[in-house]
Amino acid sequence: MNTTRKTAGAIGLALGLFAASGAAADTIKVGVIAPFSGPFAQYGIQYQQAIETYVAQNGASAGEHEIEFIYKDVGGVNPDQSRSLAQELLIREQVDYLAGFTFTPNALAVGPIITQSETPTVIFNAATSVINKESPFFLRTSYTLWQVSAPMAEWAYDQGLRTVVTTVSDYGPGIDAEVSFKAAFEAKGGEVVDTIRMPLSTTDFTPVIQSVKDQAPDAVFAFLPGGPPTFTYTKTYNENGLRDAGIMFLGTAETEESNLQGLGDMAIGLTTAYHYSAAHDSDLNREFQAKLHELHPDGIINWASVGAYDGVHLIYEMVKAAGSDGPAAVEAVLGMEWESPRGALTMDPETRTVIQNVYIREVERNAETGLLENAEKGVIATVGDLGWDQ
After folding, report:
1. pLDDT at position 3, please?
2. Model confidence at 24, in pLDDT bands (50, 70, 90)?
3. Are the CB atoms for 44 and 71 separated by under 8 Å?
4. What is the DSSP string of 87-145?
5. Residue 284 and residue 98: Cα distance in Å, rounded?
6. Residue 25 sits in a domain of what CATH number?
7. Higher pLDDT, 238 or 313
8. Given this model, what pLDDT does residue 23 score?
9. What is the enclosing helix (H) or strand (E) of 45?
10. For 353, which DSSP code?
11. Phi then psi dihedrals of residue 198, to 5 deg
């Protein structure tokens, strides 16, 4: 028998036995799988801080149920560990919901398990379109690479850029970013003169940047996983003179707030298309940030924060509607609309990824605070997962 099916079957049996033994129904447990150690630990910390912020604003109960969060450290890109932690949470901790999942391989690894156990699983980040096709119990409150990369390409062409080299990390999200940017840019009439895929282990981007410079396109489009790689790539872009050569930088999360101040003035003018900026001008965003900084004065707020914050809101609404009934919980939020610190959101009933605004952002120094920020320069409204049918 297939090992995955055997494991999923064992989990289903174990969960059935727990239910039959009369496990307490008044507390809903949510297991959060995320990196809390290693180079990507910042994201797990941000998830937890955002969760605590939501609870501080809305209380620790949803409907008639108390909500308990249980955190598990997956370290980094580790699908085997992700699967093991999901099994532990479902069988030993008897959680009713799962959440977190920064990286695509980690999310994909739990697809068969959550389908068998009928466990609603809210993705706070992992951004490859195909993930949600792997289980009807996946819901995503972050974004997909198609959702931000295609609008970036269309905007770039409208600004007069005609040639681009794409440089992406060689795994699911990077390939989605490359394919979606290329398709949208060429559909407008532009030319992608080269597509460069970089191994995830790459730490020296000088050869890649030099290759781009030699080809002299109008712009370079980049996608890398968050954390140290984005900082190093962006730094290398400037140090090797691409800006001075007139090669515009286009990206998605490469100017994320956790790296931004460290990049310094060399980040000014870098352009990205993304679903959230900490500089977003709304009362709800200011309230969210004020409460988070009240609880965590040194907290960094970015896409990870808002993905978790909205993810918890979704979980609360599912719990209110259906308690621990997984299928009913998912059904209850399909098509749901709400206002987020990033703007208006709708849970797409087909893709189970939020429909949202995509913002064209340019790094500027705030005149009042003196800090760098991703200033919103334009908005492409109500964008869904453009990669769902690809």
Report:
1. 42
2. very low
3. yes
4. HHHHHTS--SEEEE--SHHHHHHTHHHHHHHT--EEESS---GGGGGG-TTEEESS--H
5. 26
6. 3.40.50.2300
7. 313
8. 41
9. helix 41-58
10. B
11. -110, 130
**Which of 168, 66, 130 has its CA nearest to residue 353?**
130
Lowest mean pLDDT among 21-25, 142-146, 147-151, 282-286: 21-25
Residue 1 confidence (pLDDT): 38
Cβ neighbourhood burial of 32 (10 Å; 0-12, 13-18, 19+):
buried
170 lies in the same domain as 241: yes
* Same domain, yes or no: 268 and 287: no
Rg (CA), the chain: 21
**Separation of alpha carbons 223 and 212, rounded Å:** 14
What's the order of all strands across the beta sheet hosting 65-73?
61-62, 65-73, 27-34, 97-100, 121-123, 138-140
Total number of domains constituting the chain:
2
In the block, which residue shows the tokens 């609870």? 55
Which helix (H) or strand (E) segment holds residue 376: the answer is strand 372-383
Task: Say if residue 200 is in the same domain as residue 121.
Answer: no
Given this model, what pLDDT does residue 280 score? 97
Residue type, 326: G
Confidence check: pLDDT of 179 > 80: yes
Backbone angles phi, psi at 220, to 5 degrees: -120, 130
Burial 159-173 (b: 16+ CB within 10 A, else e): eebebbbbbbbebbb
Enclosing domain of residue 158 = 145-274+358-383
Residues 77, 218 share a domain: no
3-class DSSP state of 242: coil
Give CA angle at 175 (171, 179), nearest 5°.
175
Cα 143 from Cα 350, distance rounded (Å): 15
Amino acid, single-letter form, for residue 192: V
Q: Could you tell me the two tokens for 188? A: 């407008």
41 shares its domain with 175: no
Do 153 and 241 fall into the same domain?
yes
